[in-house]
Design brief:
Radius of gyration: 52 Å
CATH superfamily of the largest domain: Histidine kinase-like ATPase, C-terminal domain
CATH class of the largest domain: Alpha Beta
Structural class: alpha+beta
Largest sheet: 5 strands, antiparallel
Number of strands: 12
Bound molecules: adenosine-5'-triphosphate, magnesium ion
Strand content: 15-25%
Number of domains: 3
Number of helices: 12
């Protein structure tokens, strides 16, 4: 694994290196070129002045040349060489540089200039033809070295180097420090992830600052929060479910035991016991069926949606519930609009309607009533189930859709309820893109409102 720091460090070092190289070469090269230019100008103009003064002489001879040079100011020059047309020296102020090549070139009529920067000095040479009355009379060759300017340039170069080394060192240190701080926070995040992955869902990361890493930490904490909540729910569910299954199983065992242990039970009592065993078994069966329904809804495997006419489903559910309603002396009323079609699944819709209506009848009072309304509201279809029953206290309404939740445990159990009906309703409604709310009915009772998006004509194919 390449650590981020190594990559970062490598990148910054390469960048700094390029910068340093540029900084340490470009100013030097360009100032050197400037000096070359200047040398060329000054040396050529000096050569031109000497050449034109010499061309005024009738013949080039050492005394004549000395005379001319005395008049002209030639103090800055290291060497002055004047040759005749054959390249033979007529005057030489002295010097070891070989001038033959330049002189030969100047003899062919060209002005020659050369300059170089070496050994902390600028060395420049210029050779220029001297024109006499009858054409070429000779060549003047000038040579000059300049250590002053060279020293200046080298000094500047040294300073740039020191400053850039200091800057490079400082930036590397800052980068190192910064990446250390950053990586420390990343490592902290990774450590927290490992802790949570190990199963400690209570762990939270202490988030500092407001940058992207802090955002990441925030997200991580939220994720952990959700994991924690899921885990709690799962535990609660398992314990609730086992409890729900344990109670009827215990009664079945108790009833069976008492039949087995009592040798002379009469047929009537036996029948009574058996009926009780049967109803406990039935309750078990209902609970497990509902658990299966819930786990199917949980699975999120989207069952194929089909157009479902809610009116037809409502009529079916009402028909199924009529016997229970008659038994409880509860009257059923309905106002069902036509054309309320949604995209869903017939079984789920039936479960929703049946469970809501069953509750409305079960938790009602004698001579109470239940009203089912079905109508279109804008782009939605709204289902309302109202009853005049015992109602649901406001503080229980939040929990009513949780698994195994019952307001009045004794009453619900007596009515054969498992506390799963509304969870199934809730999950089924959400699975088909709907929403459900619960409130109070006036003057008494409860009201459940379910809303679904209406199926579009493309979906229904009509
Ligand atoms: N219309 C209602 N009026 C009053 N209380 C209600 C109503 N509907 C539900 N409740 C309360 O909400 C609880 C949960 O309802 P839910 O339908 O989930 O379970 P259940 O009816 O007890 O059992 P199940 O529906 O699984 O047979 C009920 O036990 C009951 O206390
Ligand atoms: Mg119910």
């Amino acid at each position: 694994m390449h650590s981020i720091r190594a990559q970062f460090f490598g990148f910054i070092t390469a960048l700094l290196l390029i910068l340093l190289i540029l900084l340490n070469t470009y100013p030097l090269i360009s100032s050197r070129d400037l000096v070359f230019e200047e040398k060329k100008r000054s040396l050529s103009s000096q050569a031109a002045v000497i050449a034109s003064s010499l061309s005024g002489l009738e013949t080039l001879s050492r005394p004549g040349i000395e005379e001319v040079l005395r008049i002209l100011d030639v103090s800055g020059l290291e060497r002055i060489l004047v040759t005749d047309t054959q390249g033979r020296s007529l005057y030489d102020s002295g010097g070891s540089q070989s001038a033959e090549g330049d002189v030969a070139e100047a003899l062919s009529g060209k002005i020659v200039f050369r300059s170089r920067f070496a050994d902390a000095a600028f060395a420049s040479a210029c050779a220029m033809p001297i024109s006499g009355q009858g054409g070429l009379a000779g060549v003047v060759y000038l040579y000059e070295t300049d250590t002053e300017r060279a020293g200046l340039i080298l000094d500047v170069q040294n300073r740039i180097m020191i400053v850039s080394l200091v800057i490079a060192g400082l930036s590397l240190a800052i980068v190192l420090l910064f990446s250390e701080v950053l990586l420390h926070r990343v490592r902290e995040l990774v450590r927290s992830m490992r802790i949570v992955a190990g199963g400690d869902y209570d762990h939270r990361l202490a988030v500092r600052g407001q940058d992207e890493i802090a955002e990441l930490g925030e997200e991580f904490n939220q994720l952990t929060e959700r994991l924690d909540e899921n885990e709690r729910q799962r535990r609660r569910f398992v314990s609730d479910a086992s409890h729900e299954l344990k109670t009827p199983l215990a009664s079945i065992r108790l009833l069976a035991d008492s039949v087995v242990q009592n040798e002379n039970v009469d047929v009537g009592t036996m029948r009574e016991f058996m009926t009780d065993i049967g109803s406990e078994a039935e309750r078990l069966q209902r609970t497990t069926e509902k658990l299966l329904d819930l786990s199917r809804l949980d699975d999120d495997v989207q069952v194929a949606s089909e157009p479902v006419d809610l009116r037809q489903a409502a009529v079916d559910a009402l028909t199924m519930l009529r016997p229970l309603a008659e038994e409880k002396h509860v009257s059923l009323h309905s106002e069902l609009d036509d054309g309320c079609v949604i995209m869903a699944n017939n079984d789920d819709v039936f479960h929703i309607l049946f469970n809501l209506l069953e509750n409305a009848v079960k938790y009602n009072v004698p001579d109470g009533s239940v009203r089912l309304l079905l109508r279109e509201v804008g782009d939605s279809v709204e289902l309302t189930v109202e009853d005049t029953g015992i109602g649901i206290p406001e503080e229980d309404r939040l929990n009513i859709f949780s698994r195994f939740y019952r307001v009045d445990k004794a009453r619900s159990r007596e009515a054969g309820g498992s506390g799963l009906g509304l969870s199934i309703v809730h999950d089924a409604v959400l699975a088909h893109g709907g929403s459900i709310t619960v409130g109070a009915n006036k003057p008494r009772g409860s009201r459940f409102v379910v809303s679904f998006p209406r199926a579009t004509s493309e979906e229904t194919g009509i």
